Amino acid sequence: MSRSGVVGRRFAVAAVVVVCVGVARWWLTTASEPISEPSWRSGKPSGAYRDVAPCWSHAGTRIAFLREWETGHVQLCVAPADLSRVHPLTQPEVVNPDVPLATGIASMQVRDAPVWSPDDRYVAFP
Questions:
Q1: What is the rounded (10 degree) CA torsion for 9, 62, 35, 75?
Q2: Within this chain, do residues 8 and 67 fall inside the same structural domain, yes or no?
Q3: pLDDT digit string (tens) for 26-35?
C-alpha cells in the first residue's frame, strides 16, 4: 500500500473516532438524567417504559435499542435517527433470570446493546 493510502486510511479512522466522540458527548449533554438511570415514560401497551442500550447503525440513519417496560417486559426496537417513529421488532417478553429454560429475548443478555450487521439490514445481540 502506498504512503498516501496509509495516510488516507488513518485519516478515515480518525474521522470516525471524532464523529463517535461527538455523538457520545451530544448524547450525554442532552440527556435530562444520567444514562445509567433513564426516566420512565408513559406509553403503550403496558404503562411506563424506558429506552436503554442504544446502538447507531453504521450509516447513522437508524438506532436500535431495548425498551424496558415497567412490568418487567423487554422489547427490541428500531427508530430513525430523528426518533420520529419507533418500530418494535419483537413483542414484549418477560425477562426472568430465575426461569431455567428461558425462551425468546429472555435468553439473551439484554443489558448489552444490540449490534447492526455490516450492511445495516439486521440487528443482533453479541
A1: -130
A2: no
A3: 555 554 444 4
